Amino acid sequence: MLATVIIGIILFIIALVIYFEYRNEKKYRQERQKRDRAKHQKKKPEPKISKRPAAEKPAVREPKHTYEPRKTTQQTPKTPVSTQAPVTPKEETKPVQEAPKAAPKKEQPATKLPEGNYPDFNYDRLIEMGLSEEEAHEFIQELIPQIGDQIPLIDEAMKIPDFHKMERLTHSIKGSSTTIGTGGVSDLLVEYNTYLKTGSELPVAEAYQEHLKHYFEKLKKQFPPKA
Asked: Which domain holds residue 158?
C-alpha cells in the first residue's frame, strides 16, 4: 500500500514537471518567434555616396598680339620678328595626396567550444524521494530510449540548420533527465538547451551534439538493461 502511494506521488511530481516544461517551452517558442519577426523588420540603411566635385583646371591665358598701324609717309625700320613661341604661364603643380592607409583588420576571437567535462550520471534524487534501487533503474531504462530517439532528429535539424527545432528537441529530453538524476547527460542537456535558446553558432552546436552522443553511450554502459 505504501509503495502504491509513493509511486502515485512520484507520478504526480513527474506530471507536474512535464506541465511546467511544456509551459516554458511554449513561452520560449513565442519569444523566439518575436525575435525572428524583429530581425526581418530591420532594414539596413543604404550608405549615402557623396560625389566630390572635380577640381577645376586653371584657365590658360593666351597672349594678346598687338599690331601697330602701318605708316604711309615715313618708312620705319622693321623690327625683327621673334620666332620663339609665346610663353604660356605654367600651371601650378599640386602635391599628390596619398590615399589614407586602411586600418588593419582586427582578428576575431576564436569560437569557444564547450569542453564537455561532466561527472558520472547519478540518481540520488530518486533515492531521496523514497524509491528503491530497482525502481530507480527502471526510470533510467525508460530515459535511455527517449534520448536515443531524439539524437537523430537533432542531427537532421542541424543540417538545415534550424536552431529553434534543436532547442525544442533538447528541451524535451532535458526535463526527463533532470527529473531522474544529475551529472553526465543531464548536466550536458541543461547547458546544450540553454545555449540553443540564444546562440546561433553552428560549430558550438555541433560540439554539444558530439558530447551528447558520447555521454549517451556512457549512460547505456553505466546502466545496462537487466536480463
From this structure: 119-227
CB-based contacts of 166, cutoff 8 Å, min separation 6:
154, 157, 158, 196, 205
Asked whether 197 and 158 are in contact (CB, 8 A), the reply is: no
Q: Is residue 158 part of a domain?
A: yes
- Asked if residue 194 is part of any domain, the answer here is yes
Beta partners for residue 122, in sequence order = 182
Q: What is the CATH number of the domain that holds 187?
A: 1.20.120.160
Q: Which positions ≥6 away from 174 have C-beta within 8 Å?
A: 186, 189, 190, 192, 193
* Location of C-alpha cell 602635391: 95
- Own/partner long-range contacts of 32-40 (Cβ < 8 Å, ≥24 apart): 32/164, 32/167, 32/197
Q: What is the pTM of this model?
A: 0.54
Q: Which letter, b or e, does each residue of 127-149 get, where b requires 16 or more Cβ atoms within 10 Å of its Cβ?
A: eeeebeeebbbebbeebbeebee
pLDDT digit string, tens, across residues 93-141: 555 566 666 666 666 567 889 998 999 999 998 999 999 999 999 999 9
* Cα distance between residue 199 and residue 30, in whole Å: 17
* C-alpha to C-alpha distance for 187 and 52, rounded to whole angstroms: 61
